[in-house]
Design a protein that fits this description.
This protein is mainly alpha-helical. The protein folds into two domains: 3-50, no CATH class; 104-210, no CATH class. It has nine helices and no strands. It has helices at residues 3-26, 32-36, 38-93, 101-106, 117-126, 130-147, 159-166, 172-187, 194-210. The protein starts with a helix and ends with a helix.
Length: 212
């Protein structure tokens, strides 16, 4: 037998021995099958990782939406609270609540000397009711003349009577002109806008300054 053939035979016996010895030690268990199943587990773990990541992202999105919802709810409650406060303070700011301004001015002569002309004039101008504002200014002049005892004020007296009482006084002619302007604005069918009111009110204020 050649040296080469002997080496091959020894290699075969050694391989057989090693395989036979390994099977005796391990109980003839083939661990190669378990090894083959190891790779799919890695894929499963990757899928679990992705799934966990998706769950985490979803939770973050839900949390973000909840925060937005809470902010919106707080904003709505704050706005409603602001409206309630505004209504509350406006209610007490009104001297005569729940009454129309025109109705108040119409009955102003019932208690002329206790009327708050500044308040009523401000409200009329805020509402753009310039004709009503002219009446308020005229009644303020009547009150001023009464306070100065230039006229004897009575609830049922006419403007013409006041003009006659003022005729002998220095400001009588100017008062007659103002009375004429007032009656045209109040009883006539004129559309008094802001520009016209500014011109008319200037004459009324000028007359009031003379009575100080």
């Amino acid at each position: 037998m050649s040296v080469y053939a002997l080496q091959n035979k020894l290699s075969e016996q050694s391989a057989y021995f090693e395989k036979d010895k390994w099977q005796k030690i391990t109980g003839k268990t083939d661990y190669s099958e378990n090894f083959k199943e190891f790779k799919p587990k890695e894929k499963k773990n990757k899928n679990n990782l992705n799934k966990n990541r998706d769950i985490k992202t979803s939770k973050q999105a839900i949390l973000f939406l909840k925060i937005i919802l809470v902010v919106v709810i707080i904003g709505v409650f704050a706005f409603v609270f602001y409206l309630l406060l505004k209504h509350f303070f406006n209610f007490f700011e009104e001297k005569v609540p729940r009454r129309k301004l025109g109705e108040i001015v119409e009955n102003l002569e019932d208690d002329l000397h206790n009327a708050d002309f500044d308040f009523l004039l401000t409200k009329a101008l805020e509402k753009g009711e310039y004709t009503l504002a002219i009446r308020i200014l005229y009644l303020r002049i009547i009150k001023k003349l009464s306070d100065k005892e230039h006229i004897a004020w009575k609830r049922d007296k006419t403007n013409g009577q006041y003009v006659r009482e003022m005729f002998s006084r220095k400001a009588g002619i100017q008062f007659a002109l103002i009375t004429n302007i007032y009656e045209q604005a109040w009883f006539g069918n004129y559309n008094i806008d802001q520009q016209l009111y500014t011109k008319v009110s200037g004459k009324f204020h000028e007359f009031l300054k003379q009575l100080v």
